[in-house]
Amino acid sequence: IIEHARCQKMSLVLFSLLASYRAYAQNPHYTYHSCSNTTTYTRNSTYSTNLKTLLASFSSPNSSYSTGFQSGKAGQAPDTVTGLFLCRGDVSQESCRNCVAFAVNESLTRCPNQSEAVLYYDECTLRYSHRNILSTLRTDGGYTLPNVNNIPRNQQDRFRDLVLATLNQAATKAVASSRKFDARKVNFTALQSLYGLVQCTPDLTGQDCLRCLQTSINQLPTERTGARLLLPSCGSRYELYPFYNESAVTTQTN
């Protein structure tokens, strides 16, 4: 009986560890966050209540995970909160849901009393503000993540031309699409492919989306083996490995 109890206890411990590992393994990949300190709110204030209401709507089962984008507002002036979430155009509905729920939970920890915040993950972005951010272009506060390794010096000019051409082609396609998203793969060498991805929040006009993507693309360091530039309204990225789901992109961009 003692041995049986011991085995049961061990099984429960292993199950708990496995469940914790799975939960950890499914967490979205945190990239960067920015909290504006210019305007803050107090706990239990009307703004705080409105913010929690808006965030709860984003992480509810009825949110627009299938389209990967949702915007909204809560409350009345001067305590109105506007916000949105945007999932990367190739991620599954389940991954989108997981990322948004995770970002919502983390937002109040990473930005505990700031009225304006943006949280970036590989799979999604979450934004909210006391100002109206809906259908509004924002290209300030950019954040660049360059890879450590450089392209060989004698290949950097050709590589730069290929990166810019690929991402600009993707930007043209993204602007014309309903999801404001495009990703593509081209050959750099006979054995090496270049992967590029661009995306805007779909609430932007085509003109504003293009302006945002051009700003992002033109600021990318192209001497690295990969880099991304994050802006509140859009982002661009290139790598020498497949960092997105190619089959999902083929389905959604045709």
Task: Give the topology, please.
Blueprint (H helix, E strand, L loop, with lengths): L1 H24 L4 E11 L5 H13 L10 E6 L6 E7 L5 H18 L3 E8 L2 E6 L13 E4 L9 H21 L4 E7 L5 E8 L5 H13 L8 E4 L3 E6 L6 H8 L1
Antiparallel strand pairs: 1-4, 2-3, 3-5, 4-5, 6-9, 7-8, 8-10, 9-10
Strand order of the largest sheet: 1-4-5-3-2
How many beta-strand runs? 10
Continuous helix count: 6
In whole angstroms, how far apart are the ends? 63 Å
What's the shape?
elongated
Extract low-pLDDT stretches.
Answer: 2-25
What's the Cα radius of gyration? Answer: 21 Å
Give the overall average pLDDT. Answer: 89
Structural class: alpha+beta
Helix and strand pattern: HEHEEHEEEHEEHEEH
Main β-sheet, in a few words?
Answer: 5 strands, antiparallel
Report strand %: 25-35%
Provide the helix percentage.
25-40%
